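Extended Data, panel c. Modelled sequence:
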Amino acid sequence: LVSIAHVSNVLGNILPVKEIISFAKEKNVLTLVDGCQAVNSFKVDVQDLDTDFYVFSAHKLYGPTGIGVLYGKKEILEKLPPYQGGGDMISSVNFSKTEYNTLPYKFEAGTPPFVQAYGLKKAIEYLKDIGMENVYKHSQDLLNYAKKRLLDEFQDDIKIFGDVKNKVGIISFILKDKKSNIDMIHPHDIATLLDEGNIAIRTGHHCAEPLMKRLKIPATCRISFGIYNDFEDIDKFVNKLKSIQKFFRR
């Protein structure tokens, strides 16, 4: 099984998953695509990708926590045994054998998280009403504006990772500190001071330590844009980041 991310949660880069899936099929290898950072950014067609499995979390779609989606090709799911036991996942039981229920019930043992499932349904409907093409365009507009503001304001003092054309609304960066004996202002310090200005970003290794080691850094600052963000949010962020840089250069 080859497991790949549709979009890098660290860099925002959209990966060539369709080509990877095609190559894996030539080797008779199953594929699983993690779409957590993709389904909230653009329309995904699992039939077109031809992946064997596709997964994502509801909270990435502005839905509730505690529930996600596993798509799998029917012929493969029928061969897989259940991973949990409980009500509704069996068809019949006696002392000699157990017969499992049909799909998808054999994978949904016990009382289902129906509240979360309904929340996920409404979140999907909400995004469909907006239109994923509009979601993507809004994200790209904010991405391009934020990148220009950051590069204009900080120039050589900022390093943006994964700066490619084909990406979603995520910018991962470090802010250099030329006036001290360290190479950069630590992302955790930046996040703490941004938080004081009611600006929330993600910092750390983003559950991708091998990538951090490849980049030879301990962590990055990561900003990401949602449907509720606007250009004013970016201006506020850049202005606060500038004041943080001045604070560390005193």
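The mean pLDDT is 95. This feature is highlighted in the accompanying rendering.
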